[in-house]
Write a structure and sequence with these properties.
The chain is of the alpha+beta class. It has nine helices and seven strands; from the N terminus they run ααααβαααβαβββββα. It binds 2-acetamido-2-deoxy-beta-D-glucopyranose (7 copies). May be a cell surface adhesion protein.
């Protein structure tokens, strides 16, 4: 009798021990201090880890906007908010949309997803519209975003032509909020800067087409010699303006 109870006690304590040990072993990885929000912000790293943002990461990197976000998130007291379109969002754009954009427009497209201020999801529900983005005021475009609260803890974001819902915070905390969207917020580029629908079929007779291939196709204005240079300078100037905007 006595030996039975002691045996069962021993068994009990062994199972208890095991049950105590195994969750601990399992918990070891999650227990490792959650990668703190301290340390330098890395927007592409955050999106890379979340997965499914390959195109946006490529655009952020190519346009150097990633560096701007990282720097500003680190230095600004206001923080930053990034609306991150998924690869699905980019795949759902009409074919060739990105390729039709000039370099400058690609920069603006990316900046249209970057707000120079930290917004929690709840603050977006009541924010006064339109909300400034990093693209606001560029190239004469008023690229603001409108946010409207809907039922539950959900927010719609609109840039005029496109409206979509924010479901998910990839990264909720100050100084950098990152929200997932399933549509790309393509700014409404003014017709002056938009790539005109069909570049005039420049009929270069294939036999004699020698000479430098003219890449600038500015059908509206007579391309006078300084035209090309202006485009180049405009891009550089625009970029440095962005940077100045970020620094101030
Ligand atoms: C963040 O900003 C501080 C100054 O505010 C600077 O010393 C530090 O090097 C910056 N870190 C990064 C990763 O840029
Ligand atoms: C940010 O993360 C990306 C991808 O994880 C990495 O390639 C890059 O080196 C990181 N940048 C910085 C500044 O840590
Ligand atoms: C948000 O968008 C969805 C469709 O995308 C729409 O059904 C809903 O009414 C919108 N809510 C608000 C508050 O605009
Ligand atoms: C955003 O809201 C403002 C004010 O409500 C409105 O005037 C503007 O047309 C809206 N813009 C877009 C892109 O929806
Ligand atoms: C361009 O040239 C091709 C032949 O090379 C011709 O068929 C076509 O009609 C021409 N288009 C224009 C707009 O002149
Ligand atoms: C174009 O010009 C180069 C020299 O400038 C010449 O070598 C080449 O054969 C020319 N091609 C045609 C198609 O005329
Ligand atoms: C080129 O265009 C600019 C304005 O776009 C004008 O001021 C200038 O006179 C033009 N130059 C020539 C050579 O046509």
């Amino acid at each position: 009798m006595a030996s039975y109870t002691s045996l069962s006690l021993i068994l009990l304590s062994i199972t208890q021990l095991l049950s105590l040990l195994s969750p601990q072993a399992q918990a070891q990885t999650p227990l490792a201090p959650a990668p703190a929000p301290s340390g330098p912000i890395n927007i592409t790293g955050i999106l890379d880890k979340a997965g499914g943002y390959g195109t946006f990461i490529r655009l952020l990197t190519e346009t150097q906007v990633a560096n701007q976000i990282n720097n500003q998130a680190n230095t600004s007291t206001e923080g930053m908010t990034v609306i991150a379109p998924t690869d699905n969002a980019f795949n759902n754009l009409p074919a060739g949309t990105l390729n039709k954009l000039t370099d400058n427009q690609q920069v603006q497209l990316v900046l249209n997803h970057v707000l120079p201020k930290y917004y929690s999801l709840t603050s977006l529900q009541t924010v006064s519209n339109p909300v400034r983005t990093q693209a606001t005021g560029q190239e004469g475009g008023v690229f603001g975003l409108n946010f409207t609260g809907s039922q539950g803890n959900q927010v719609n974001v609109s840039c005029g032509a496109v409206e979509t819902q924010i479901y998910n915070a990839v990264r909720p905390g100050f100084p950098l909020a990152v929200y997932q969207v399933d549509k790309v917020l393509v700014p409404q580029f003014s017709s002056a800067t938009a790539p005109t629908a069909a570049p005039p079929a420049a009929n270069t007779t294939s036999g004699g087409s020698n000479g430098t291939k003219t890449t600038d196709e500015n059908p509206a204005s007579p391309p006078n010699a300084s035209g090309r240079m202006n485009v180049g300078l405009g891009l550089v100037g625009g970029l440095s303006l962005f940077c100045m905007g970020l620094l101030s």
